[in-house]
Design brief:
This protein has about 240 residues and is of the alpha/beta class. The chain is built from seven helices and four strands, in the order βαβαβαβαααα. The two termini are about 25 Å apart.
Amino acid sequence: MKELNITATPIERAIAVSVGRKGSDRVMALDHLDELAFLAETCGAEVIAKMYQELEKPSGATAIGKGKVTEIKELIEENNVTLVIFDDDLTPVQVRNLEKELEVKILDRSGLILDIFASRARSAEAKTQVELAQLQYLLPRLTRLWTHLSKQLGGIGTKGPGETQIETDRRLVRDRIDLLKDKLRTIATQRHEQRKSRANMVKFALVGYTNAGKSTLMNALTNSGVYERSIVCYS
């Protein structure tokens, strides 16, 4: 059965956006915005602009002000932008409103990080966990720009009578979530049996910041052959 892997197009033209409250640390906010742009580029996007706006309170409808929405829309039209990424988490309502106004895909930092994990995951368990997290993140945010998932799902389910495309997609996503949860329960059972057989073995864990050299140390200690690469969230 084909797995649904919801990731950005390999090369997307993107705008990175950050919203700060008036009186907050502007330098820190701009640092976070730079980091967001770096994460987007890690996913293969080309960030053509970074935008920052200070507000008394972020808009409940679109997070940013109406003037900034118009400014971003002009940039989108002038530069063939296909993706706008926000540094802060957006509500499903904000995502829907922004996609309606800007007519491009909208992601927030959480969605972007999930995309990075999806592109880096290699074990069956990791891929399943990331796909489940992606779908749970996506479900309340499904809009017309995210429809037609059935083609990617390899024919899981069929369109019911009187359903709109979005309703169909939501049902397909819920079905896929249930399937992935069952798969993870099976993996957990298998892992439990494996751990029982290794009960007397010494166990250790390596913890460190991203790109700190954990894989290099692991290989030096155990000759385990973990792939080493200077890229975030790879191993």
